[in-house]
Design goal:
Elements: E1 2-5, E2 18-22, H1 35-45, E3 49-53, H2 58-67, E4 71-76, H3 80-86, H4 92-105, E5 108-111, H5 114-124, E6 131-133, H6 146-159, E7 167-172, H7 178-196, E8 202-207, E9 226-230, H8 235-241, E10 244-247, H9 257-264, E11 268-272, E12 288-291, H10 296-305, H11 314-320, H12 322-336
Parallel strand pairs: 1-2, 3-4, 4-5, 5-6, 7-8, 7-10, 8-9, 10-11, 11-12
Helix pairs in contact: 2-4, 3-4, 6-8, 7-10
């Protein structure tokens, strides 16, 4: 059972019930009236565990532990206080204290990366035996079929009037999120001028909603090999049809989910060191090139070299396929609960 906000679509769920019991208002995080209806649902289901996605409902989880017999699991997608600290928010010390109290109250804490787990153990004083890495995952367990990739490539070329033989770079992310917008500015102002000095045929496609007014000129960069596609209905076409995913993100923390998806679609990837956190290089074979943060000459050179016809190793899917991830999480809880 998933208890979520009103804006989420229950029809998208497969194999579990979705209850839209939480409002979309920012005030939902302090709504004390959520306690009793959620407590009743946990008791009626005789649920053994409940999971908080992110620590923000920590106060609710602590109260639910007192009103039910269920164990509390916190699934941290980032170390939230460090993410907000990197974005310059003054209130990050308050969040740090709250995040610490939430995770110390949890029976188990799941993290997306080894780095986040080690940080939480050291800074929050967690019992390592009650922690585990439960990474972000993808819903397919093998490289897409070659004919699917070729069909997507043809569609991209038709949609954006791209000549055959052109190397297609892709960046994707919500552009109202500061780290992604900063990455777009790096692509436009720092990387693309370096690529223009080289004599090879390429296009950089940027996908994502939320482009701020200050960057409206991005739409006029077509003559400099940049295509702003905006929000697209089916991003998988872009992942399957492109040659290289670029990830020049240097802040924001946590695993970059689009990098995992890109590799799963068999793209080559070029990433900064910070952008590749949570994606073990040994699982990617020769598909991912990691460049030091701020080394934009090296990043541009890696872009020029990327795009060979190779496949991501099976070990990548063994690690990032949701079915395997869920099995590991379940077995961890069952083992630790004995």
């Amino acid at each position: 059972m998933c208890i979520t906000t009103q804006k989420n679509d229950p029809a998208a769920a497969e194999g579990y019930q979705v209850i839209n019991a939480i409002s979309n208002s920012p005030l939902r995080y302090i709504n004390i009236f959520l306690l009793f209806p959620i407590s009743r649902k946990i008791n009626k289901q005789k649920a053994s565990h409940f999971i908080l996605e992110h620590p923000y409902y920590g106060w609710l989880g602590i109260l639910l532990k007192k009103t039910t017999r269920a164990s509390m699991v916190v699934h941290a997608h980032n170390i939230e206080y460090t993410r907000w600290k990197s974005l310059g928010k003054w209130w990050w010390p308050i969040l740090k204290w709250y995040e610490k109290q939430t995770m110390r109250a949890a029976d188990y804490s799941f993290f997306k990366t080894v780095q986040d787990l080690e940080h939480a153990v050291a800074i929050f004083g967690l019992d390592r035996a009650r922690t585990a890495v439960v990474t972000y995952g993808i819903e397919w367990d093998h490289v897409p079929a070659e004919n699917d990739l070729l069909a997507a490539r043809t569609k991209l070329e038709q949609l954006h009037n791209i000549q055959p033989g052109t190397k297609i770079f892709l960046f994707n992310g919500s552009l109202d999120y500061a780290p992604n917008l900063d990455a777009v500015k790096i692509i436009v102002n720092t990387l693309n001028p370096r690529l223009l000095e080289n004599k090879f045929r390429y296009k950089i496609i940027i996908c994502g909603r939320g482009l701020p007014a200050e960057m409206n000129e991005l739409k006029a960069y077509a003559d400099k090999h940049i295509i702003y596609a905006g929000f697209v209905d089916d991003i998988s076409v872009y992942f399957k049809g492109a040659d290289v995913f670029i990830n020049p993100v240097t802040d924001g923390g946590g695993i970059k989910t689009k990098l995992v998806e890109a590799l799963g679609y068999n793209l080559d990837a070029v990433s900064t060191t910070s952008g590749a956190i949570g994606v073990p290089i040994e699982l990617t074979g020769t598909k991912m090139k990691i460049v030091s943060d701020e080394d934009w000459d090296g990043f541009a050179n890696a872009m020029g070299e990327a795009g060979a016809n190779r496949s991501v190793p099976d070990s990548f899917f063994e690690h990032f396929y949701w079915g395997n991830i869920a099995d590991k999480a379940y077995n961890f809880i069952i083992t630790q609960g004995k």
